[in-house]
Fold this protein.
Amino acid sequence: FVDVPVDVVAELASFVETIVDPTRTAEASRDWWPLAMRWALEGQVPQRCAVICRPTSGDHVARIAEICNEHRIPLTTAGGRSGVCGASIPLHGGVLLDTTGMQGIVDVDSTSLVVEVLPGTFGPDLEVELAAVGLTVGHHPQSFDISTVGGWVACRGAGQYSTRYGKIEDMVVGLEVVLADGRIVRTGGAPRAAVGPDLDQLFVGSEGTLGIVTRVWLRAHPRPVSERRAAYGFRDFVSGLDACRRILRRGATPAVLRLYDAPESKRGQGGDGDVCALLVLDEGDVATVDASMAVVDEEALATAGCQPRDSSVVDAWMHHRNDTSALQALTRKGFVVDTMEITGSWSRLPGIFDAARAALLAVPHARSATCHLSHSYVDGACLYFTFAANPPSSEFDATYTALWDAGTRAILAAGGNLSHHHGIGLNRARFVKEALGPAFDVLQSVKSALDPNGILNPGKMGLADRFEDGA
């Protein structure tokens, strides 16, 4: 734990709201990581920041960074704290930089369809402001109500309509970023520029370890004038996967294309345990939507054993798609419950599907391991595993760790990747070197160059931790 000296607190307080109250710093030091939620139920905090700073401008952020860098104080950035991997937990105390004081749309270029927005802006506020000018960004993660634009960028997030609008990295046009020493840089800003590597993508997904995002330029779209819904039932998950692959191969990009295995279909989509439900929704221009849904219908019904289902199951999903209360209830009852979202190429997804579930169910005390496809692309898709276990209370943490070890290593061995949109944080940090191989050294070199004192979100992304090492 790194405390913040009294004179440094006074210096910070001279230009920005600064909070040292123990209750408020404890609350700000939590996120929605299921393991941390368990600790919270027991009245524990993984680590508490010493100070919260709530800047209202990029200049404030730059000065905070400069001060922390000068005094070698850890600086962890947090927004809505909706992450589920512990990325915003201040592992070594220090300063927690709360971006929610920087909110709102700065500018809208309705001709070029680009919106300039501050990082602490929450999803609903962004979309309400854009709706007034007939636009949308189209980014609707499950955490939409409690997550911020800066958090979407930091963790490389995905919305539930990503097959139509893309993930956040497809939406970012440019960034303003504060570096560890307080310098302010701007990246991107031009369509498809060829000025060396894409520096936007250097910071997208870096989880506050390389810089602090203080302004974002996002692609926008005209608000949709048409919407259509459909549902289908497949006799097995792999045949449903192949139908989704063929849909994308033909160029159709329905906003929602979600395929559930039989247990998840029975649990949430009105299935009987023998059918795998596919939910489809598209929105946009009338002609585009009609063409997309025609391809979906042709490819789904061309699959042996596929049957159309009532689209009311899509309506039901729309009503409860952001509801996580069931998972929270199980956590309160002592169950280990979490989700693991990864991607793989279409050719490898069937093997990943089998390997991950088998590995998870082999862990002592495991009770279930189910799966759905949540985001699709021409070359592959995201599989989203949900798993649960019911260990003795004394074995809760060990069981949680064992499930993540087993599932992750099975997925990597089967050709999957480490994460699709939840990010790395603390929970997945131990797997990053294994996932990236020799390329990890490149990431570490970038970190060392941009943050030589290691103050930015230390202990995350599997990167060297100067505070842990005592350097």
Notes: The longest strand covers residues 366-376. The CA atoms of residues 344 and 416 lie 5 Å apart. The mean pLDDT is 96.
